[in-house]
Amino acid sequence: MDPEVSAVRLTVWEAVHILSSSEDGGRIFCTLGSLKRYLGETENSALPEEQEEFARIHFSTFLRCLVGKLSPDWLELLPDGQMEELWASFFLEGPADQAFLVLMESIEGAASPSFRLMKMARLLARFLSVGRMAAVMEGQCRQQAGPAFPLLQETLLTKVVGLPDLLGNRLQQENLATFFPQNYFPLLGEEVLRVLQVVVDSLRGGLDCSVSFLSQVLGKACIHGRQKEVLGVLVPRLTVLTQGSCLWQRVCWCLVERVPDWAMEAVLKGFVEAAPGPEVLSRLLGNLVTKSKKAQFVMTRKLLFLQYSCTMPMLQSLLGYLAMDSQRRSLLMQALKELLETWGSSSAIRHVPLVQQCYVSKAILICLAHLGEAELRDSQDELLASLMEGVKSRLDSSLPPVRRLGMIVAEVASARIHPEGPPLKFQYEEDELTREMLALAMPQPTADGPSEAGPSFAPVSGETPDRETVDRSGPQVGPEGSDSELDSDDEFVPYDMSVDREQRSSKAPSYVRGCLEALTGSEDWERWEAALRALEGLIFRSPAATQEVSVELAKVLLHLEEKTAVAGFEGLRQRTLVAVTVTDPARVAEYLTAQFYALNYSLRQRMDILDVLTLAAQELSRPGRLGKAPQRGSPDPGSQPGGAVVPAWRAVVEERVRRKTRRFSKGSVGRAPAVGPNEFNSVAGYFFFPLLQHFDRPLVTFDLLGGDQLVLGRLAHTLGALMYLAVNTTVAVPMGKALLEFVWALRFHGDAYVRRGLLSAVSAVLLSVPAERLLADLLDELLEARSWLGDVAEKDPDEDCRLLAVKALLLLEKLRDKLLPLSSP
Question: Is the predicted pLDDT of residue 312 greater than 60, yes or no?
Answer without folding.
Answer: yes
